[in-house]
Amino acid sequence: MSLLDKLEETDMIAVIDREMKLLLDRKSLENQRVERVANANEKDPEAWFELGMNDIEEGLRYEDLAFQKDRLQYIIDHPDEEEVPALTLQLPELKTFYDHALACFDHVLEQDAEYYGVQCQRGICFANMHAYEDGEKAFLQALKDDEEDANAAYNLALLYEDWGKDDKATEYFALAQKLQEE
């Protein structure tokens, strides 16, 4: 039995669709729970930070499922092709994950403008939405806040690489490696 036959037999597309729907439903319930906690502790930046981190994590999982689904659909639609081309996704659902995370991180900054890691996480949200200039600003602010933040340097390098600014990417990959070694 070929891979294509197995895919069609198990209807993996439907399985992934159900998992994506469950993730969105769970996101809604989880956000309600965490927002109640955050609203009860409105002045607690840690509660807001945790909510934003949860949105990033679930956004990445949703994106991974969408890529799997698109790859499987491509294989089914193009059974004679040996390689699946690089696929790009523009999912409005992803924007809701990251917009919500950014709103949570804004609450963090309102309570504590120097909360460790929040600028880097904001940069990750912007980078995942391909809002490169905003992501760059956030990562540079993270590095300004902590010149030894290897994670911010590495993620800024990834942003530059995705943005097509290879010289900048190389510069920040080198910086991230240097900071990691220290």
Distinctive features:
single chain, 182 residues, mainly alpha, 80% helix
Describe the model.
The longest helix has 33 residues, at 45-77. The chain has helices at 3-10, 12-40, 45-77, 92-111, 118-128, 132-145, 150-163, 166-181. The chain has 182 residues and is mainly α. 80% of the residues lie in helices and 0% in strands.
Spell out the blueprint of helices and strands.
Blueprint: H1 3-10, H2 12-40, H3 45-77, H4 92-111, H5 118-128, H6 132-145, H7 150-163, H8 166-181
Helix pairs in contact: 2-3, 3-4, 3-5, 4-5, 5-6, 5-7, 6-7, 7-8
Low-confidence stretches: none
Q: Which range does the strand content fall in?
A: under 5%
Rg of Cα set = 19 Å
Fraction of residues in helix: over 70%
What structural category do the secondary elements indicate? Answer: mainly alpha
H/E element order: HHHHHHHH
N/C terminus separation: 53 Å
The main pleated sheet reads as: none
What shape does the CA trace take? flat
In round numbers, the mean pLDDT is: 84
Number of helices: 8
Number of strands: 0
Can you summarize this structure?
The chain is mainly α. The protein is 80% helix and 0% strand.
